[in-house]
What does this fold into?
Amino acid sequence: MKFRLPFAPLVALRFLREGRMQTFLILAGTTGGVAVIVFLTQLISQLQNQIVDRVLGSQAHVVLRPLEEANRRAIDDQGFASIIEPRAQRLRSIDQWENIARLAGGMPGVTAVSPVVTGPAFAVRGQANKSVALMGVDAERYRRIVRMEEYMVAGRFAVEGTHTVIGTELAKDLGLRLDDKLRVAFPNGRDELLQVGGIFDIGNKDLNRRWVFVTLPLAQSLLDLPGGVSNLDVTVADIFEAQTVADRLRGATGLTVDSWMQTNAQLLAALRNQSVSNNLIRSFVVIIVALGIASVLVVSVVQKQKEIGILRAMGASRGMILQVFLIQGAVVGAVGSIFGSMLAFTLLNVFSAIYRNADGQPLFAAELEFRFILVAALVATLVGLLSALIPARRAAKMDPVQAIRS
Amino acid sequence: MTAVIELAGLRKAYNQGTPVETEVLHGIDLRLEEGEFAALIGPSGSGKSTLLNLIGLLERPTGGRLSVGGRDTARISEAELTALRGRSIGFVFQFHHLLPAFTALENVMMPTIIARGVADEEAEADALALLDAVGLKAHAYKKPAQLSGGQQQRVAIARALALRPRLILADEPTGNLDTHTADEIFALLRAFNRDSRCACLIVTHDPRLAARCDRIVRLVDGRIAEDRAVPSL
It folds into this structure.
């Protein structure tokens, strides 16, 4: 049994096949348009994800800190002038942090909470000393905030006893290798001898120089914060919901709560502007492609006038003629989106081979998400259909007698 | 005898309601019986084509009555008119008017595809049989451009017959063919008329061909000037 197309698709496809040059041009236009949109969308979404990934690679999504201390006006306001001096902020613990950590952990959208004690210190070895930030963490919990294990160049990210994990820059500055000893000294006079259990490279020289990880209890005692933590780091499920989660946490705890979105407001604004201009470009491309399809089909309707008249004389209704041209638009959109996606995939491969990061890695992966292709195909088909509307209606309205005579 | 078409006081005016309103047909009375083979003759501008378009339901009259197969066409909708046209009338135009993008076979199947939405084995077999009947079975898979003028017109006749219409309207079917080919085409129409009892109305300028019809209707200035039977030989 032979497969037979129904009237409208049969005639539509035959018309497209017959108008070779036109069909080629209109398909080329649609292919180019779809390729630009898919390529641009994929490129920008990948770049943005990467930037956000990089930023969040060494940052907690949300950080809870104690409220800042402020001097209050103690004198009544009966005309006494006063100057309120801002107060120096000492290192303090979050009050009842364990309860707050539990509360934060139970909040919807939060996937991990890690207590951190952080304070200033000096790393000393021989004559050299470097200013560092001591980070007292529970390695197991902290891993869910910053994926430290991915950054390790030597040893493991595990702290116990007086073991420490330091960055590559600090290791280089102080000439440290795995299992070497390192002294940390504090303004309060305490000091401790640590053993290097791991060296990390987080991709940021400043942090590689400053972060010195030790166990939570050790940091607590060295920083005079027994049992306390200076902040709670929180990971959220959807990074772009971080602000909402932060607001909720602030409401529930009354602490100072900052999301990465606030800390990196400028970056986010830049990303958003990039998205806006991307959308603008995409809209224009869609409009241009639609105009291209419409104009070629308008010409085709005029050229096919006689055929339309013959079909009408043979009993084809206005609706059937309408369908013939709508299908042509939809087919051009659909086929154009397939070729366009293929072209976009090629472009992504070419450009990912050309553009490379500072570390030699490709700037973006030459991947094409299937849903992009699907969305592009749907949109292109719809655009094709809509662009064909005006020509198709013109064809349907054609008077068969006039059409045949022309 | 049943009337295939019946016209009573049929009028057609163009540009109605404007200062340039022109009436082309001034009340035509005509009845075509089943199986009749009639010629429609008349000088250019006498309204032959307009009359053919009206009978073919391609245009609507501005006055009078037109029934096709006993059905008054005045009140039926555009869509029904289109369907009625497809089912009951076959056209053969002066210039074959085949669809260049389709093969001869597909052209013959087209009325069936339009009427039923899609072709089937039966329709294809039937179309092949029709092409065989017009002597073109060997050319079934050629495009119109690969056929000669006479062959194209024969495909057009096969196409007109696809749905076994009760009436075939032919507008100078042999107008651009040489006499020999014209005779062949005419004979073909005649044969189908004899075998299937479908009525034929043929517009022609050729008095030689008109004389070979059963009946001659002469149109002058939008009126029937003469309507006579041709004595059989």
Notes: Chain A has two domains: 7-55+267-405, 97-254. The beta strands of chain A are 62-65, 110-125, 128-137, 152-155, 163-167, 181-185, 191-200, 211-215, 231-236, 256-259. The first helix of chain A runs from residue 7 to 18. Residues 97-254 of chain A form one domain.
